[in-house]
Amino acid sequence: MSHRVNILIEDDNWEIFQSIPKGERSRLVNVLLHDWSLIQKRKLAFKKIEIITKTMNPLPGSAEEWIRQNRDWE
């Protein structure tokens, strides 16, 4: 299902937009929105992973634990 939208485009972008063939404009906007949405979802997922990683304790016998132990000895 398609929807019509009114948007404001700055002059610099308007010139670029007008250079795109009329039949391709909607498809281009949809692709750009889809890509932007994926980037936002990935950023959110990365933030969640960072939070989880900071609160996790290293597994016993893991390389991470050995590195942390070596730091404490110095």
Word description of this protein:
- By secondary structure, this protein is mainly α.
- The chain has one domain.
- Helix content is 73%, strand content 0%.
- It has three helices and no strands.
- The longest helix is centred in the middle third of the chain and has 34 residues, at 22-55.
Which descriptors would you attach to this protein?
rod-shaped
Please write out the topology:
Blueprint: H1 11-19, H2 22-55, H3 63-73
- Calculate Rg over CA atoms: 24 Å
Secondary structure tally: strands = 0
The structural class is mainly alpha
Helix count from the secondary structure assignment = 3
Q: pLDDT under 50 segments (min length 5)? A: none
- The helix/strand order is HHH
Average residue-wise pLDDT: 89
Write down the domain tally.
1
Terminal Cα span:
63 Å
Largest sheet: none
Overall, the morphology is: rod-shaped
Oligomerization: single chain
Helix content: over 70%
Strand portion: under 5%
